[in-house]
Design goal:
Elements (H helix, E strand, L loop, with lengths): L3 H10 L23 E6 L2 E7 L25 E8 L2 E4 L3 E7 L12 E6 L6 E4 L3 E6 L2 H11 L3
Antiparallel strand pairs: 1-2, 3-8, 4-7, 5-6
Length: about 150
């Protein structure tokens, strides 16, 4: 039987909002995730190895960097406020039966309640308490060129 973190990722990936992490809490030594982070997934959590936008000798590169490392200029980064509104984000097999939300805003009121129904053996829900902001690298070609230069196929 698949682990809960695998089912969660499988179900929410269909929504195309990025890779759904089951464990959103970053390692306190790593700080919040940033564009350019390189790492691996284990049991639903992201584990940082290094960040391609930081210099080789940056103290945040605590595990070092690969041989021949070259830092990447990320180019223009767009920020946007309403990347994800407060409330549930759920897989296609989950339906909201009842919602008592109160007045909409940047955060869910304390007395908010939801009831859901799942029409399959698998489903997933992310409950976002506050409005989430987002950042996006606009010049994707910079990343593609960097990967072609530094990653073996």
């Amino acid at each position: 039987m698949p682990a809960a973190h695998d089912i969660y990722a499988e179900q929410l990936s269909e929504l195309r909002r990025g890779y759904p992490l089951y464990n959103l809490e970053p390692n306190p030594d790593d700080g919040p995730m940033q564009i350019g982070d390189v790492g691996f997934l284990r049991q639903g959590a992201f584990h940082l190895l290094f960040n391609v936008s930081r210099s080789r000798d940056d103290p945040a590169q605590r595990f070092g960097v690969p041989e021949g490392y070259e830092h990447l200029d990320l180019g223009f980064i767009r920020s946007y406020d309403a990347a994800l509104e407060p409330g549930p984000l759920h897989s296609r097999t989950v339906f909201t039966l009842d919602a008592n939300v109160g007045a909409p805003g940047v955060a869910l009121p304390l007395d908010t309640s939801f009831r859901f129904r799942c029409t399959s053996k698998r489903g997933a829900i992310l409950m976002q308490e506050t409005r989430m902001t987002g950042k996006e690298a606009v010049q994707i070609q910079l990343f593609e060129d960097y990967l072609h230069r530094h990653c073996q196929s």
